[in-house]
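To: structure subgroup
Subject: Chain for Friday's discussion

All,

I'm putting the inputs and outputs inline so they're searchable in the archive.
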Amino acid sequence: MGPLDAFNHLLNFVAPAAAMALLLGLSGRIFGSKTPMALGWWARVAIVFAMGVAVLAAGIVVWGRDGKMLTYAALVVACATCQWGLVRGWRA
């Protein structure tokens, strides 16, 4: 596998985490609390993205392959919980 193929595989691996982070980051103001946020939306997107990549990497370590539905379910739960914490959802 050449370097471009490896880069393409890496982009495809992190794509679900990037999509979740962007979706949650952009919708955080709509569904989150109306108090001023401690972090900007780009910072929240970066934190949720890092959490998502960590969950996807943990899925590879635990199951030995990418693309398991349980890994994607864990991605959704982890990213949603992270976003809830970042927008201070417990105060709503």
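Points worth raising on Friday:
The first helix runs from residue 3 to 31.
The radius of gyration is 15 Å.

D.
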